[in-house]
Amino acid sequence: MLGFVGAIAYSTYAAYGRGTGEVILRWPRCSGKESNLLECDPRYNLGYTGCRHTSDLGVSCLKMDDLRVRLVGGRSENEGRVEILYLGTWGTVCDDNWGQNDANVVCRMLGYERAENFSCCAAFGLGSGPIVLDEVECEGTEPNIGHCRRSDYETHDCDHSEDVGVLCIENGNCCLNT
């Protein structure tokens, strides 16, 4: 709704201060797929809540630029299975639509020039966390993989046999000795 990728935490009892005006929503039932709170199933009729601002909810959100990546399972630090830290847990990326532009964005996030190669099919082993991203389609210029077109977070049609990997290049040298 506000361009964030998820919630880190929520708080009750006006932890971020009391709001003003009419309280219009009480205990909404949301699946997480809604684009705004008014699409959630209200437990009570909109506009009649019986609530005061002492019960206002607050949310801490995760920005797209806050996504972190790492490479796991490679022979050196510049290659491996792509894992993304999402809401405190490391997870993987599915290979549907994965290509050179996507791999380049990941490598640049890690401080490398670009990707020399990319892989599908769990070439660096099967991940064990959630599958965080699927259907990733980067233009190649994005500063963070969170800015690329993709399916919703943790929405996928694959398993860990489709985890992606990359081999990153630094200053024209694809094979750093470590």
Would you summarize the structure shown here?
With 178 residues, the protein is mostly beta strands. 6% of the residues lie in helices and 25% in strands.
How would a crystallographer describe the biggest sheet?
6 strands, mixed
> What is the approximate shape?
elongated
Say what the CATH topology of the largest domain is. Mac-2 Binding Protein
What's the overall average pLDDT, rounded? 83
Low-confidence stretches: none
CATH class of the largest domain: Alpha Beta
Q: Could you state the order of secondary-structure elements as H and E?
A: EEEEEHEEE
Number of domains: 2
Distance between the termini: 44 Å
Explain the overall architecture.
The protein has 178 residues and is mainly β. The protein has one helix at 100-109; strands spanning 6-11, 58-62, 68-73, 79-86, 89-93, 114-119, 131-133, 165-169. Strands 3, 4, 5, 6, 7 and 8 form a 6-stranded mixed sheet that branches. A two-stranded antiparallel sheet has the order 1-2. It starts with 5 loop residues before the first strand and ends in a 9-residue tail after the last strand. The model has no long low-confidence stretch (mean pLDDT 83). It contains 1 helix and 8 strands. β3 and β4 (79-86) form a beta hairpin. The longest helix has 10 residues, at 100-109. It has 2 domains: 1-62, Mac-2 Binding Protein (Roll), CATH 3.10.250.10; 65-169, SRCR-like domain (Mac-2 Binding Protein). InterPro entries: SRCR, SRCR-like_dom_sf. Disulfide bonds join 30-40, 94-158, 107-168, 138-148. Residues 1-62, 69-169 form the SRCR domain.
